């Protein structure tokens, strides 16, 4: 049977931490930053963990 391929879109969007958690970047950090407060931009800069309901689907896409 052939190898399972990693989903190209998923590998660009998600990272697996050393402990096995899956993280993602926040939305709203790409453009129109002038109208957003500095506090909001700083908070959006930090990666966050994905929702528990999405973990099985994302792991499958990443081939884990």
UniProtKB/TrEMBL annotation:
Record keywords, A-Z: Ribonucleoprotein, Ribosomal protein
SUPFAM superfamilies: L35p-like
Superkingdom of source: Bacteria
GO MF annotation: an example: structural constituent of ribosome
GO cellular component: cytosolic large ribosomal subunit
A GO biological process held by the record: translation
Family: Belongs to the bacterial ribosomal protein bL35 family.
Name this protein carries in UniProt: Large ribosomal subunit protein bL35
Source organism (scientific name): uncultured Quadrisphaera sp
Organism lineage string: Bacteria, Bacillati, Actinomycetota, Actinomycetes, Kineosporiales
